[in-house]
């Protein structure tokens, strides 16, 4: 069973220790959960009202309608789009925090924050058609914040959100407009999904799904603004060499794991950790404070500041089982509620920080932008106190970590390409796509899932596509997987890239003075930073005068799990990208919804879902799509 759990060697090393300590992990709970409910897996269980729960018999003979009369297609469609709404809400709450922080900063509030990247502020302002000439920085920031807030407030259905226009081609924007799926207001669209799926409302499955697509595009809008404004506040990523996997935990340091998604607190923790190094040393930790990241909070600080990544979603519990994490500080999303119990088996202080995200058994330190510095100091203090209680005999840190060169946002990719062609940086990339040295571009994104062997699908697909000369971008837990597997190194490029891809990555790397190729997989950041990949792809499409659906471009979330992943995969399809998921979506109980997602969307948007749990077969299918797109482009 063990080797079916994860390909991560650190996980394999720690599982017996979990067992010895009688700690149940996500994999144990998965096993206990078997067999999982067939109705739920097919999307055929409805709990939308208290006449239910109702379930449809997928084999016929049993009920073919719920008590209210809803059929399988309505039930499946409603369940699906409620997931999209939750995903959009999660990302957009994140975005709202960031824009409110920027607004506060622009009015001289929130002393822990400032404008770290003025250049990015100006470029964002230009994208939003905001005047920048001879204007005060904070005034520009205020206008950027206020214009962004309109995306949460606009009540005019005819006017789309501002941000979405900046990431799709004009042609596609008009297509989405004609299909009435452009969001006008993120909050309103999420609210509308909840309303239209209430008992006795929208029952026409295609109409329900299109309502969900609008929500998914609201999700995209929320992600773009979160990424772009975070860069203004915290800096735009640039290439940095760091490391990944549990070996980044240090025995002789106070280890603080930051886990979750929202960078507002973790940024402040990182910037003031140095202040309290002395206290950590006094407490007996000669290496001082060691900040390590988990999940997307980890990815955010990794690509911006080179903070090492401890692990990705599925193995967050394993970080605690090392017995050497003194505090795990969590904010929002993808945090396993089990961590407080596991922390309690050791000396670890598990600290929740957002008032809307508490966990029983954890210590809650309430975060607010006004007092971010004090909150961070208090948290660092709690970690140092916990360190004093650490039991050295129970420390098991796997000596496993990989080097990772990360921090490839659009700006840094363009900057690297500019070394080849200063005037027209995208040209070398386009030329190499056209001449076939680069066959296509793939974005590896999304979660881990207990339904797959952890990280294996990412590794298999990445190596397979790279061998076929596909340029690889990654974000979220997919990026975490690639980093842990050592795929973000020059050596990986040497070893796994096809000859022509290797030559291109080497010429760019050498032009940048790296003395070797760019890494095999380019880490763009957190899940929210999927927007970076869209920005890059849209820049290419615009330059070529085509749509995203014409490009040899694919996305893959082979271990997708969360509602956010459902929203992301859906907008990816809606903006024209063939999108692979390796987890069977909970929609197969409806042929109408299934056909719509895998076929119908192709006519409407140019993008569609490819469902394939086997990673090697998935890679083959994705290569076929890339070749087909090239053929259609005549290249
Ligand atoms: Ni994305 Fe990141 Fe990971 Fe999935 Fe969760 S951490 S936002 S949802 S599990 S990639
Ligand atoms: Fe059953 Fe209809 Fe209520 Fe759903 S909404 S639980 S199908 S009665």
What does this structure look like?
The protein has 635 residues and is an alpha/beta fold. It has four domains: 54 residues, no CATH class; 163 residues, Substrate Binding Domain Of Dnak, Chain:A, Domain 2, CATH 1.20.1270; 149 residues, Rossmann fold (3-Layer(aba) Sandwich), CATH 3.40.50.2030; 232 residues, Rossmann fold (3-Layer(aba) Sandwich), CATH 3.40.50. The protein is 50% helix and 11% strand. 58% of the residues are buried. It binds FE(4)-NI(1)-S(5) cluster (NFS) and iron/sulfur cluster.
Kindly summarize this structure in a few lines:
The protein is 50% helix and 11% strand. The chain is an alpha/beta fold.
Keywords summarizing the entry:
alpha/beta; binds FE(4)-NI(1)-S(5) cluster; Rossmann fold; 635 residues; binds iron/sulfur cluster; six-stranded parallel sheet; 50% helix; 4 domains; Substrate Binding Domain Of Dnak, Chain:A, Domain 2
Mean pLDDT: 97
Helix content: 40-55%
β-strand percent reads 5-15%
Structural class: alpha/beta
Distance between the termini: 46 Å
**Spatial strand order of the main sheet:** 6-5-4-7-8-9
Per DSSP, the total helix count is: 26
Estimate nothing, just give the exact number of structural domains. Answer: 4
What's the number of extended β-strand segments?
Answer: 16
Ligand kinds: FE(4)-NI(1)-S(5) cluster, iron/sulfur cluster
List the quaternary state of the chains. single chain
CATH names the topology of the largest domain as: Rossmann fold
Radius of gyration over C-alpha positions, nearest whole angstrom? 24 Å
Q: Would you identify the regions where 5 or more consecutive residues have pLDDT less than 50?
A: none
CATH class of the largest domain: Alpha Beta
- Global shape: globular
Characterize the biggest β-sheet: 6 strands, parallel
Q: In CATH terms, what is the architecture of the largest domain?
A: 3-Layer(aba) Sandwich
């Amino acid at each position: 069973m063990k080797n079916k759990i994860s390909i991560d060697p650190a996980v394999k090393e720690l599982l017996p220790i979990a067992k010895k300590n009688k700690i149940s992990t996500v994999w144990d709970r998965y096993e206990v959960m078997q067999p999982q409910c067939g109705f739920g897996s097919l999307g055929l269980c409805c709990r939308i009202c208290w006449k239910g729960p109702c379930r449809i018999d997928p084999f016929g003979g049993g009920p073919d309608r719920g008590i209210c009369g809803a059929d399988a297609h309505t039930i499946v469609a409603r369940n699906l789009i409620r997931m999209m709404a939750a995903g959009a809400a999660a990302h957009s709450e994140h975005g709202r925090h960031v824009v409110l922080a920027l607004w506060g900063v622009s009015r001289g509030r929130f002393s822990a924050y400032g404008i770290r990247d003025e250049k990015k502020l100006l470029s964002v302002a230009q994208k939003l058609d905001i005047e920048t000439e001879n204007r005060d920085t904070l005034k520009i920031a205020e206008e950027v914040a206020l214009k962004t807030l309109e995306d949460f407030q606009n009540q005019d259905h005819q006017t789309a959100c501002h941000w979405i226009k900046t990431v799709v081609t004009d042609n596609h924007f008009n297509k989405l407009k004609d299909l009435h799926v452009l969001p006008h207001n993120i909050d309103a669209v999420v609210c509308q999904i909840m309303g239209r799926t209430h008992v006795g409302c929208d029952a026409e499955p295609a109409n329900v799904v299109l309502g969900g697509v609008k929500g998914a595009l609201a999700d995209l809008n929320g992600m773009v603004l979160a990424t772009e404004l975070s860069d203004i506040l915290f800096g735009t990523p640039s290439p940095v060499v760091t490391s990944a996997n549990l070996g980044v935990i240090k025995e002789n340091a106070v280890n603080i794991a930051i886990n979750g998604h929202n960078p507002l607190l973790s940024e402040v923790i990182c910037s003031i950790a140095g202040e309290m190094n002395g206290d950590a040393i006094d407490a007996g930790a000669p290496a001082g404070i060691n900040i390590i990241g988990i999940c997307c909070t980890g990815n955010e600080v990794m690509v911006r500041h080179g903070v090492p990544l401890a692990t990705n979603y599925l193995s967050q519990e394993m970080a605690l089982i090392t017995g050497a994490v003194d505090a795990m500080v969590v904010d929002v999303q993808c945090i396993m509620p089990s961590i407080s119990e596991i922390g309690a088996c050791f000396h670890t202080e598990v600290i929740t920080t957002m008032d809307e995200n508490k966990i029983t058994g954890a210590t809650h330190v309430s975060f607010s932008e006004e007092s971010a510095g004090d909150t961070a100091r208090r948290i660092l203090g709690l970690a140092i106190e916990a360190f004093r209680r650490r039991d050295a005999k129970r420390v098991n840190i796997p000596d496993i970590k990989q080097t990772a060169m990360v921090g490839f946002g659009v700006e840094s990719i363009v900057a690297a390409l500019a070394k080849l062609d200063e005037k027209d940086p995208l040209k070398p990339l386009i030329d190499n796509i056209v001449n076939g040295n680069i066959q296509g571009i793939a974005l590896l994104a999304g979660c881990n899932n207990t339904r797959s062997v952890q990280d294996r699908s990412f590794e298999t697909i990445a190596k397979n596509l790279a061998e076929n000369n596909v340029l690889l971008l990654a974000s979220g837990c997919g990026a975490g997987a690639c980093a842990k597997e050592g795929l973000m190194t020059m050596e990986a490029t040497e070893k796994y890239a096809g000859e022509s891809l290797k030559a291109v990555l080497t010429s760019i790397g050498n032009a940048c003075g790296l003395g070797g190729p760019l890494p095999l997989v380019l880490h763009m950041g957190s899940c929210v930073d999927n927007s970076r990949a869209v920005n890059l792809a849209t820049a290419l499409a615009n330059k070529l005068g085509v749509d995203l659906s014409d490009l040899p471009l694919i996305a893959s979330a082979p271990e997708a799990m969360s509602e956010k992943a459902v929203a992301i995969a859906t907008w990816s399809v809606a903006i024209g990208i063939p999108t692979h998921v390796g987890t069977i979506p909970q929609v197969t109980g409806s042929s109408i919804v299934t056909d719509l997602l895998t076929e119908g969307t192709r006519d409407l948007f140019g993008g569609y879902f490819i469902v394939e749990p086997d990673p090697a077969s998935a890679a083959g299918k994705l290569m076929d799509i890339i070749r087909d797109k090239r053929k259609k482009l005549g290249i």
